[in-house]
User: What shape does this take?
Amino acid sequence: MGIEFPHRHLLEIGPLSREDIEVILRTAANLKEILRRPIPKVPTLRGKVVANLFFEPSTRTRLSFERAAKVLSAEVLNFSARGSSLEKGENLLDTVRNLMAMGPDLFVIRHPASGAPHFVARHVRIPVINAGDGFHEHPTQALLDLLTVWERKGPDLRGLKVAIIGDIRHSRVAHSDILIFRKMGAEVYVSGPGTLLPPEREALGARVCLRVEEAVEGAGVVMALRVQKERHGRPLFPSWHEYARFFGLNRRVLAQAAEGALLMHPGPINWGIELAPELEDFPGQVILEQVENGVAVRMALLLLLLKAGEA
Assistant: This one.
């Protein structure tokens, strides 16, 4: 019997229903068992080809998708913009058309331009997964973050307070996480320097706190974000020292959180800025669990998008 999943692509969180999200997370949770086997490999996607198209730097996301595909026995094509024909003037659509001629079954795309995966999805006949686009979204990161919270807090998130601290304005992770946690019933609070908060704050769907302590108070989940300095174009706060002083997380700030609070970060981490070094052994720190869950979630998505409807 075929796997029931009603979507052809994963481009953003919005179109996913609560039921869709639960299918992805249940599938991911079941697939985690494979990763712990002595030989972590199954033939499920043998004969399928996954093309990873990364137009900006990535470590965790790119390697996570590659690992996910190989565990499921898919072949992997890895594309990097650096050293490619893009440097010779080839445009995105021509690049995609040339890669399509090599016979991939699914594209994973990370791109600095918001909307690039949506553009590609309109021009190809295969599934597309958004691995992060500009300031827009990073849906697979949101799904792995949610899975991490589910495993620690249970599936019923109603009334759970989630605090997201840092560069909200430029973070696609924040945008996807706000959407997915609110969709699952959690209350989301955000905080950061005023210059790192979006001007249309009411459209966030989260409560904005100018003091980090207010956002963290009573939170069951606290997530720090990296300052997206490469996307600012100009300095948006006086100094790293001042950022760490007022918006960096440490044990004093986390003492305001609920008992048993989780500490999360999508990476890469700037220790001493977003997180104090003393938090490396914080009891609720689950950053490496997020990384492990990233492989499982991406396995689930590859499986759902490539096998849905097959007998």
